Amino acid sequence: MVVVEAQETKVPAHHLTGSQLTISAGNRPLLQGLDFHVTTGEIIGLWGVSGCGKSTLLRSIAGLQPLLKGSIELDTQIPDAIGWPTYRQMVRYIMQRPAFSSETVEHHLTHMFSFDSVTMTYGEARSTALSLMARAGLSTDQLHEKASNLSEGEQQRFNLIRGLLTEPCFLLLDEPTSSLDPESAEAVEAIILDGAARDQWGGLWVSHDRVQLERVCDRVIELAHFCLGGNT
Predict the structure, then answer these.
(1) Cβ(58)–Cβ(93) under 8 Å?
(2) Alpha carbon 66 to chain centroid distance?
């Protein structure tokens, strides 16, 4: 008798590709001719000094401001073909300084599930939210606080959790630990890297901290090679 061993089903990898990207602040080019390719399961660092256009680059990849030249593809499709709401749910921009209103923290978490591109409900994701909060050093009592009253570091951690709940394929991480103490920064790094290790997501991690990127990323792209000057 032939015994056939059961094989674990592997989730197909997703791919995010940027080709010959040129970005600008207004009409002034900042970065030119940048290529990248990242798959789920890996984190790519984008390193550059302050003012070289790191945040502008992530916003452009997220479709929040136009590219001057170049193209973005998710699994060989451009965002227009996928549909921008779906693309932005799959490629989640995690901004450095989130804009939180005076609504409660939980309101901000539940709001993510009101979009048509999100197929799950907040009720289904709430246990994940609570688990991530515990890992990030946040209290469940804070769900009922006004989000605008949180410290910068607390807002930054809740913003990451908010972005993870809708199960993106890729994270566009804009200095995700910039407002955190070392212990909290380590916790956030672990959350991001653990998900990547399980092929839950891939990421582009922007920072001016080369030491951190060398520690947490699979490889690092030096933006100085593409920088034309700028101030964002």
Answers:
(1) yes
(2) 18
